[in-house]
Amino acid sequence: MSDICLLCKNRKVYHIKSHLTPAGITENTYGERDSEHIYTIDAEEKVIDEYYGRNHPQQENIEIKKEPNSRKGIFCKKCEDDLGVYESALQDKLNELINSIGRDATVNRVDTGTKYVDIDIYPNVLITFFLSVVWRQCLEQTLDGKDIPLNPEQFEELGNLVVDYIAVPIKEMVKRQTLISPVMSIFTSYNTKTAATYANPHPKNTNPLIFFIGPVVLQYWLTDQPTNEFEKITHIDRNLLDKSLTLDKSRLAIVNEGKWEKIHYVVAQTLARQYLR
Ligand SMILES: [Zn+2]
Questions:
Q1: How far apart are the CA of 7 and the centre of ligand 1, in A?
Q2: pLDDT digits over 126-182, tens only?
Q3: Separation of 79 CA from ligand 1 center, angstroms?
Q4: Could you list the residue range(s) of the whole structural domain that residue 93 is in?
Q5: What is the Å distance from ligand 1's center to 195 Cα?
Q6: How far is the CA of 78 from the centre of ligand 1 (A)?
Q7: In a domain, 49, yes or no
Q8: Is 167 a member of any domain?
Q9: DSSP string, 26-59
């Protein structure tokens, strides 16, 4: 592999482990860093695997496995540090908010009745962070030789936005006008800490595209019009496509646990079909 950073395509990589989906977000559902328990399903290679972090109590054998969602030597020091700044600004606050839903969080409703909570994080910081997560998940798919839901131009444009935005210090970022970006929105559910979730794009390409990010599901709009039968394909209610719930408003929508389970189940089902083929 080339020793040039895959993000800025300019500086040399340094050899540290990079999380493709930020560990701070997924630890809310996978368990703490180094104590994770992660399942991976590779429908194309037909492999199901289990990964335990090195400090996980179930770690019984000494077999050394590659940790899912991370790679060594793909980013330069600056890009890694810049990504880290946005992760630190956001992840604890977001995890706390998610875990407070159903407890002491103030839940509001939009006109269509969909529930949401306000995220106490500036829209530009949220947008930058989630753009970087989408880009990194697509990168991971590419590194694994899998298809990605973006075409090469869209993937490259997204990478360029990420490099530009993460280089902006947060102090300055919060004073800027709302960033130019594909429209995104996120939703979660109650008790995601104990629910099965994923860290990958939805195996079916829809508009908006769907990305699973541990306790959050992200919708990423490529064009204005949703895919025909979006609800039937994804089990995500049309109400969640409402423009009053987008990330530039710092809102996190909430679906009930049954719906959350169903949305995730559909993915497992799709992968299982591919696996059996
Ligand atoms: Zn770089």
A1: 5
A2: 999 999 999 999 999 899 888 899 999 999 999 999 999 999 999 999 999 999 999
A3: 4
A4: 76-276
A5: 35
A6: 6
A7: no
A8: yes
A9: HHHHH-STTS-EEEEEETTTTEEEEEE-TT-TT-
